[in-house]
Amino acid sequence: MVMEDNESCASRVIFDALPTSQATMDRRERIKMEVFDEVLRRLRQSDIEDAHLPGFEDDLWNHFNRLPARYALDVNVERAEDVLMHKRLLHSAYDPQNRPAIEVHLVQVQPAGISADLDSTSNDAGHSSPTRKSIHPPPAFGSSPNLEALALAASLSQDEDADNSVHNNSLYSRPLHEITFSTEDKPKLLFQLTALLAELGLNIQEAHAFSTTDGYSLDVFVVDGWPYEETERLRISLEKEAAKIELQSQSWPMQQSFSPEKENGQTGARTHVPIPNDGTDVWEINLKHLKFGHKIASGSYGDLYKGTYCSQEVAIKVLKPERLDSDLEKEFAQEVFIMRKVRHKNVVQFIGACTKPPHLCIVTEFMPGGSVYDYLHKQKGVFKLPTLFKVAIDICKGMSYLHQNNIIHRDLKAANLLMDENEVVKVADFGVARVKAQTGVMTAETGTYRWMAPEVIEHKPYDHKADVFSYGIVLWELLTGKLPYEYMTPLQAAVGVVQKVIGVKNAL
């Protein structure tokens, strides 16, 4: 039961927290200052009135400082006016009535391998306007090579079908929509935004996610799939869809998997988080017998301790009271509901739980070997081939048992695979696991981007095969000792997997 915030999709992708040398930090600061100076120079040379107001320079510097360093590293200085737009959207998001603040622009992605000379030649030759490089500006953030390759592949495909395509001369570039959101930062925000785009039939070609130091988000998506080369109708549609999602989140009381207190005839204030109970289990922990030892790990929503319960060594996952809300309570209840039903040598054993707020905790057997993730990526350990086979089989046995009991884990990754003192590997962390629906397919989205199946990323119906995909990524990780898609951000990896532009050989 690893509490590390291991790029989980329940949290924001924050890269500044990664350990870096002083030289790297100094280089980032220097680049950030250079980008700031260039953006300021371009804005002052333009006709933008705000750039000449007193205090503008300080406001602009504060904007760069509240965002992670990679914002300055990635932003396209040739679109300095977009920095002002980002600043304005973040300011607008302060007002709850404006959330999410949305901006839509038409942009054009230049496919990899196509030079500016070819563009100008095409224009001189009299080709139709979509071939011209300068019809629309480039995206606000530099496109990754994989996505430029995707643009080229799509353009070539369109060119082959020229007789049937409305973009029949789009070999060299194609118009896309760049959508920028700003709102209050919160868990699973990226999932909500990508689900919103999917509802409108939009395909994400590139994505950039930033969190500010004061709790707000700036999320930029380059998409295709909108049939019109305009922005206002798309912006209105986005606002309507965002309003629906906001209403759904406000009316979500823990109602999908469990019966709320109304069904139990309870009224007034709750004294326990409701957990389904068939009368056959006794798992409520007596805190008097629970002894806390040292902290093993800490995450955004809880801490993990080593301790003892009735003289037995245990791991204690404690949820942080200040982070409790209905969604977190729902995940806590779901984890208890599933863990108390499973018993297998390759699944971490559930001991019990305390369900009396604010002291919510889950107690499991203690796994002294730590996680497979820590062993591979922190301790730089290497599994010899016989041990590697054993680890892979242990995982397979644990997951097979879960699937036979109609349980889909949904977040299988190296960090959720724990080892005991005998190097037996066990599946852990069922916070986002679910019992398979009667139909055999599910559509709720969760997991961790680097290990997530494409159908889950796209919010499409999925079943136990999503875990099989994640298992394949884990096998690759065991064999190579590398982090999946290590040269990409988690979000870029997710987009690449969905668009099938990442080759296992080249990008994993």
Structural summary, described in words:
The structure is a single chain. The chain is an alpha+beta fold and 508 residues long. The protein folds into three domains: 22-250, no CATH class; 261-365, Phosphorylase Kinase, domain 1, CATH 3.30.200; 370-499, Transferase(Phosphotransferase), domain 1 (Orthogonal Bundle), CATH 1.10.510.10. 35% of the residues lie in helices and 18% in strands. It has helices spanning 22-45, 56-66, 69-74, 80-92, 116-124, 145-160, 189-199, 232-250, 326-339, 372-378, 385-404, 454-457, 465-480, 490-499; strands spanning 101-109, 174-184, 203-211, 216-224, 290-298, 302-309, 312-319, 350-356, 359-365, 370-371, 407-408, 417-419, 425-427, 434-435. The chain has a five-stranded antiparallel β-sheet, covered by helices on one side. A hairpin with a 2-residue loop joins strand 6 (302-309) and strand 7 (312-319). Helix 7 (189-199) crosses helix 8 and helix 11 runs antiparallel to helix 13 (465-480). GO terms for molecular function: ATP binding; protein serine/threonine kinase activity. Belongs to the protein kinase superfamily. TKL Ser/Thr protein kinase family. RAF subfamily. Its EC number is 2.7.11.1. This is non-specific serine/threonine protein kinase.
